[in-house]
């Protein structure tokens, strides 16, 4: 709508809310507005320039279908009354060739004392004045008994071997003892918390794959334990 006196233009729905001070030739002094044709595409409004580029097709704004997530790593699912199994992906790959990752919690039950590195101590004034400071000579080592049932969680893959898990545990605790002094076991307890099965994991075994053989309904009755190498194998 456009005022016949001052040529003020507004939308027809906004006329009741507009109060103009200009006066028309009418006696009541009210402003008179008249309808005006909306601008066409061929005649743009003043101060505006028509866009030269063509608008994208309507299909460009339509939501695309949601992509299916990749299942190359497989899916781990718990079946009632059986152990957790690894289902192959859509490609039909063998379960043993599927790669996956997850967390394992290892319980450290060590009877003998272990040697831990506390880091290099700062050099004394005497060492600075008499000879060159050597970090290796000032590294502090301490031997102590680790508390039983010490837990540590590690993020590993299905291709991580037992030897690599043991080495990672020793590095996280700054333990200087050789990894061959330790061994990892798979333990199973009954409902009365009594040990009913003990299986040693070889260096080339995969702990994360071994967990798939656990009963999901009795998952709290299983655990991975790091202990001393009782067989005394030295390689």
TrEMBL record:
- Domain named Phorbol-ester/DAG-type is located at 1-22
Q: Which GO terms of type biological process are on file?
A: signal transduction
This chain belongs to the protein called: Ras-associating domain-containing protein
Q: State the superkingdom.
A: Eukaryota
> Whose protein is this, by species?
Elysia chlorotica (Eastern emerald elysia)
Region (Disordered) location: 33-92
All copies of the Ras-associating domain together span 138-231
Where is composition skewed (Low complexity) in this entry? Answer: 33-44
């Amino acid at each position: 709508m456009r005022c016949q006196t001052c040529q003020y233009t507004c939308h027809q729905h906004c006329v009741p809310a507009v109060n103009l001070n200009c006066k028309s030739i009418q006696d009541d002094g009210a402003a008179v507005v008249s309808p005006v044709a909306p601008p066409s595409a061929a005649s743009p409004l003043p101060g505006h320039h028509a866009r030269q580029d063509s608008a994208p097709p309507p299909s460009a704004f339509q939501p695309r279908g949601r992509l299916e997530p990749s299942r190359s790593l497989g899916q781990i699912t718990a079946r009632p009354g059986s152990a957790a199994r690894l289902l192959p992906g859509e490609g039909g790959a063998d379960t043993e060739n599927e790669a996956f990752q997850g967390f394992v919690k290892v319980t450290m039950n060590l009877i003998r004392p272990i040697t831990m590195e506390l880091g290099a101590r700062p050099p004394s004034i005497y060492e600075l004045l008499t000879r060159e400071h050597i970090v290796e000579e000032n590294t502090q080592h301490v031997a102590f008994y680790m508390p039983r049932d010490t837990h540590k969680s590690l993020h590993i893959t299905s291709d991580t071997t037992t030897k690599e898990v043991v080495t990672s545990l020793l590095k996280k605790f700054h333990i200087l003892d050789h990894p061959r002094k330790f061994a990892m076991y798979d333990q199973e307890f009954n409902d009365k918390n009594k040990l009913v099965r003990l299986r040693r994991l070889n260096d080339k075994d995969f702990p994360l794959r071994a967990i798939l053989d656990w009963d999901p309904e009795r998952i709290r009755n299983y655990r991975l334990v790091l202990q001393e190498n009782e067989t005394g194998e030295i390689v």
